[in-house]
Amino acid sequence: MPKFLTLDDFDVKDKVVLVRVDFNSPVDPQTKKIIDDTRIRAHGETTIKELSERGAKVVVLAHQGRPGDPDFISLEQHAQILGRILGKPVKFVDDVYGERAKNAIRGLKSGEILVLDNVRNFPREAKDAPPEEHAKSDLVANLAPLADLFVNDAFAAAHRSHASIVGFTVLLPSAAGRIMEKELKALSRVMESPEKPCIYILGGAKADDSLRISKYVLDNNIADHVLTAGITGHLFLVARGYDLGKPNMELLEKNKLLDLVPGIKELMDKYPGRIEVPVDLAIEVEGKRKEISVEELPTNYPIYDIGERTIKRYTELIMKAKSIVFSGPPGVFEREEFRKGTKALFEAIASSKAFSLIGGGHSIAAVQSLGLADKMGYISTAGGALIEFLMGRKLPGVVALEEAAKRER
Ligand code: 3PG
Question: How many domains does the chain have?
Fold first, then answer.
């Protein structure tokens, strides 16, 4: 577990606290309305609420989308949603580091919450630069003198060495927020000497990420077994020498995934018996589900799920496991006929005694739609940051907090 300070280490009463959260939410491209408030709720109900209740003057910094993209919108809506979640007024100023933002901060009373506008309005925010360089940026140089403490709660954006993530930690006492703490604590349970057996279930379409994660967790003896499914599983089957048939091979080719096959082969040869691939699959024939054994491949029909024998094998491994990571659903769970694999694996995780960590937008949507979210050990709010962490990469936002903690001691 990284060594950083937390909200427990500071008296925040009457202090100006800059809190970097990750409010980045899905937005309807037509109406520009936020369609899922999970992240706003997560930070709101924990860190922001606690700081406000402890009498801090809370200044919220966050990004939404990327300049030029349809979801690059102001944070006014986020502030309104936050107000509804907390059941109290939340102020908003359509400025990030100019005079209006500074005046709004100076005018805050203890316990009040102010949301500044999208930090990515600041042109140099998203420059990939070291903390010391960002500390000299206009954003940090303007806001830091007004604040007493910086809190980074944005685990989901901690893989970015951006100004609002790493810059303030150079100039201000800095702490991790409650979501940052929770995410890292859950991750350490599946990454740092996890209870064994430990399994990683990697489905979904991001096969390149799955390969990197598999390599890291096998090379470092973190996972005993990697269970592949979804597009990831298809690619691992190709590496085993199977021809999946025209529609399926074309999909892999179109997404430029076939280049990964030599690397997968190498990994499978290095760790015999540790990487599971599906033994049967569900294909779509005239709109219906049909299961075939991998020995019946190639098929002219698209593959949309794992089959019953694979479900049985994976369920056995889940039931024996003490630590489980689940990233990426094994099938097209949005369609009733192809939900079986995803449903069965989540039900097995729900009934097992293992600690489980669920990550990735699709996995979260799947577990929520199945009504099993509260039976999981921990559901991460992060996307890219989680993937990078599982690959063993150091996240700049976390490193910056560790450096700040060393300076405080
Ligand atoms: C995310 O949603 O993964 C984070 O908010 C990071 O967003 P970004 O990929 O635009 O930096």
Answer: 2
Mutate-to-test residue for ligand 1 from 160, 162, 206, highest number of ligand atoms within 8 A of CB: 160
Neighbours of 382 (CB within 10 A): 24
The answer to whether residue 33 is domain-embedded is yes
Q: What's the pLDDT tens digit per position in 195-215?
A: 999 999 999 999 999 999 999
Provide the CA 13 distance to its chain's centre, in angstroms. Answer: 31
Tens-digit pLDDT profile for residues 257-299:
999 999 999 999 999 999 999 999 999 999 999 999 999 999 9
Q: Looking at the CA of residue 160, tell me the nearest atom of ligand 1.
A: 11
Task: State how far the Cα of 328 lies from the Cα of 387, in Å rounded to an integer.
Answer: 11
Report the 10 Å Cβ neighbour count for 298: 13
Ligand 1: does its nearest atom lie under 6 Å from the Cβ of 160?
yes
Q: Which atom of ligand 1 is nearest to the CA of 126?
A: 11
> Cα of 214 to ligand 1 centre, how many Å?
23
Rounded to the nearest angstrom, the distance between the alpha carbon of 346 and the centre of ligand 1 is: 26
The CATH number of whichever domain residue 235 belongs to comes to 3.40.50.1260
Residue 409: the pLDDT is 75
pTM of the model: 0.93
